[in-house]
Design goal:
The structure is a single chain. The protein is of the alpha/beta class. It contains five helices and 15 strands. A six-stranded mixed sheet has the order 3-6-9-12-14-15. The protein has a five-stranded parallel sheet with strand order 1-4-7-10-13. The radius of gyration is 22 Å and the shape is elongated. The two termini are 43 Å apart.
Length: 253
């Protein structure tokens, strides 16, 4: 069973700058992370990801003060307006940017750190019916790619990147890249640090299983050549791809 996450240093702060100061930070952050953005006015009027964050700050304020029903009503209103569902109990840090945003779901006990970037279709979901912490904790400066699912009471360490459509069900160390289903952790060759430009390349997804299979197949063919006394591959076997392209009658389409 996945151990409960009790880390606090990765959690989003409960207290931060005032509402309007946070709005200014959000607008500046969106300009930095979206090359299509042309002005703060355009962002303020037309970016549903920020609208969802701003409404969530109000609904979360209500939730924390016991006004549960108004908080849920406001979060449902935001869902209808933006296509983004954030439970009012979720904790969202500063300068969080939801790009495009349609289909994003953030559960009640999720905690999202500062300077996190979420793309459309991301789910921060639970895997238990038990009360208490059952949704992920996302560290600072994490990027989660389009369609990715992060499920359960797990921690995504700071400065990590989750590739598009990955399904993550285990805790991820800091400065990692996660790809695949289920998510496989790949250590960064060049660590990301606070102060670096946002790491938005969520389409860079190394295929760890394909690399391992290709290396294994190449090794098997080499050993078969040594045993048979020639280097010609067996015509009826599946062979390692050449220039990343699979070919042969086994793959005729």
């Amino acid at each position: 069973m996945q151990a409960e996450i009790t880390h606090t240093k990765h959690r989003a702060p409960i207290k931060g700058p005032g509402f309007f100061a946070s709005v200014r930070d959000d607008l500046k952050s969106a300009l930095q992370r979206d090359p299509a953005a042309r002005s703060r006015l355009e962002i303020a009027l037309l970016y549903p990801g920020l609208h969802a964050i701003w409404i969530h700050r109000i609904s979360h304020w209500l939730w924390m003060r016991g006004a549960k029903l108004p908080a849920r009503w406001l979060s449902q209103l935001a869902r209808g307006l933006t296509g983004i569902e954030i439970h009012p109990g979720a904790t969202i840090g500063q300068r969080v940017f939801i790009d495009h945003g349609m289909g994003v779901v953030i559960g009640e006990t999720a905690e999202v750190g500062d300077e996190v970037t979420l793309y459309h279709g991301v789910t921060l979901g639970g895997t238990s019916l038990a009360k208490g912490k059952r949704h992920p904790t996302i560290g600072n400066r994490v990027t989660i790619g389009a369609g990715a699912k992060v499920l359960g009471n797990i921690l995504i360490g700071a400065d990590s990147r989750v590739g598009a459509n990955a399904v993550v069900v285990k805790t991820v160390p800091e400065n990692s890249v996660v790809v695949g289903v289920p998510g496989q952790v790949v250590k960064r060759s060049q660590p990301h640090h606070a102060g670096d430009a946002p790491d938005l390349n969520h389409a860079a997804m190394p295929d760890v299983f394909a690399v391992a299979i290709k290396d294994l197949m190449s090794r098997v063919e080499e050993l078969e050549g040594r045993v048979d006394g020639h280097s010609h591959p067996h015509p009826h076997h599946v062979h390692a791809p050449v220039d990343d392209a699979w070919e042969g009658i086994e793959f005729m389409i």
